[in-house]
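Limitations
The structure tokens in this dataset are predictions for the assembled complex, not deposited experimental models. Users should treat interface geometry with appropriate caution, especially where small molecules or nucleic acid strands are included. An illustrative entry is reproduced here so readers can see what is and is not provided.
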Amino acid sequence: MELRVTDLTVTRGMLRVLCGVSFTLASGGALILRGPNGIGKTTLLRSISGLQPPLDGSISAPAESFAYAGHADGLKATLSVAENLEFWSSIFGRGGVGTALEAFELTPLAARPAGMLSAGQKRRLGLARLLVTGRPIWILDEPTVSLDADAVAMFVAAIRAHLGAGGSALMATHIDLGIAEARVLDVTQFRAPASGAFEFDEAFL
Amino acid sequence: MSSVWEYANPKKFIQTSDRVLPVIAAMAVLCLVTGLIWGFFFTPDDYKQGSTVKIIFIHVPSALMAINAWLMMVVASIIWIVRRHHVSALAARAAAPVGVVMTIIALATGAIWGQPMWGTWWAWDPRLTSFLILFLFYLGYIALWAAIENDDTAADLTSILCIVGSVFALMSRYAVNFWNQGLHQPATLTVKTDSNIADVFYYPLMVSIAGFMLFCIALIVLGTQTEIRARRMRALMARERMG
Amino acid sequence: MIALLIRDVRLAIRAGGGFGLGLAFFLIVVVLVPFGVGPRTELLTSIAPGILWLGALLACLLSLDRILALDWEDGSLDLLATSPLPMEGVVSMKALAHWLTTGLPLVIAAPVLAIMLNLPPQGFGPLVLSLILGTPALSVIGTFGAALTVGVKRGGLLLSLLVLPLYVPTLIFGAEVSRRGAEGMDFSTPLAMLAGITCGTIAILPFASAAVLRVNLR
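Predicted assembly:
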């Protein structure tokens, strides 16, 4: 499925942070967003995935085609690794968590409560969730935080497999993942001009 | 541009209300002074209730305004949800403190009146209880406004609370009626029955109701202006910070 | 949606889920009342329905902020919002899970505590009936309050301030049913009102809760 974003304007708090964001992400492609902290990458990703309405612009793909993974993994400490994953797979109406556990080498940990995992293992479980959603477009916000080199390799392998199956991925990350087919988009160019930065409050000025 | 919605523009609202406000305020003072002096000093004592009856010139108008302020908040909330005019949300916010004060006045004058009449400051009478519940709703509404930093989020949440709260307030009214049949006399003013109070009380009461109404409108307009200016100040400060 | 219900119930029952806290609170409130009002049996008999209803209501209130706040903190709520479940379904299931883990145990415990307050025998049926019919409304209304305050840090007090006035009609009719039942009077009218309020809130309030939650998530 192709994702085409046209002239998107997104807001945080009551401030416009990015405006005129346009890009196309074909199926099988990956797009990496770059930009300094606070530029609005997270806001942009949340807006595209449908969590907050954009002020302006259009997103071609419906909200049902996105799988969003933010800073928090949404894990329950008292549920086991397998139970956490099974919950999400039944929410998205899919069976089988075996391959997802396998892809992030979580099978040996399947019975352990998620609260007993290390930060990196939690992150791996959070990313394994993407595999059980079955959605074509992955939206990832800093997916590699607290992952070691091996885990990053697992993640890259999972992304590759997803792209190979016709999916696509949109991510904000600072490290070089070594995914050759990924394009890089610097969002600094879309920074909202300071003069008109307060769309909601303009009427009050 | 002859639509009423042009006043939804904050600048236009401030400009127009600046011109209208002194007129409303002056009329409010005139009506209040006339109504209250007429009511207190130029009406006869009731043969049963004595001079205590004269508290109705404060009690009835403030009770009416307590309910009307809430109704205004409901209407403003619906306008905010449907048309998203910021002035509407801010007017609802400005009406809440006025409503609270009117509720307190109604409750306090009711207690002062109730003492000589029923021999008790407070009774769990349906009308009194309903007003107490209304007071609690006002408190919750104001607390929610105060708790949320983002102005638009707060406006959305309080609007929904206001609408849901109105339904529950109505249900509470009937529940309380069912729960206790009460000692409060039936409403002083009704539109169609012929059991209304005597004319000597009626006209000064009307004048003081008009006075309270104008006074509340003036306060709400002033409050809305203050909210608009505060919002404008926050916008300007945010712009300074962003450079 | 069933998966969400099962998960929430499982989370509540596992260690640290707070299951039983509400029940213990209910017990303590009911035990404290005789200390406050004195041990006279006839007085306790006459106030027993009200105390039991009030205790159940407060115990319910105590656990409301867990309904959504935990999922908000760990990001699950964002993920649920982007899942195929409609938000209305999410809040309804959350309310149902809250009722199963808080309301239902209270209903079961109430007759036992009623013995301690010397409730007359004919009052047990109406008491349980009114609680079974009324506590779902408490959970649904509480979920609305929890959705309103989910973004507020330490919003527990605010939550109580918002929810308690909304509890008034349910409390009045619920306590009236069990009071009339205890006195051997006809209680069909308040029972019908209580059932009406519960059905109405279950049918309509999830839409308001979902709208509020969407506002809070953006």
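Some entries come with short summary sentences. For this one: Chain A has one domain: 3-204.
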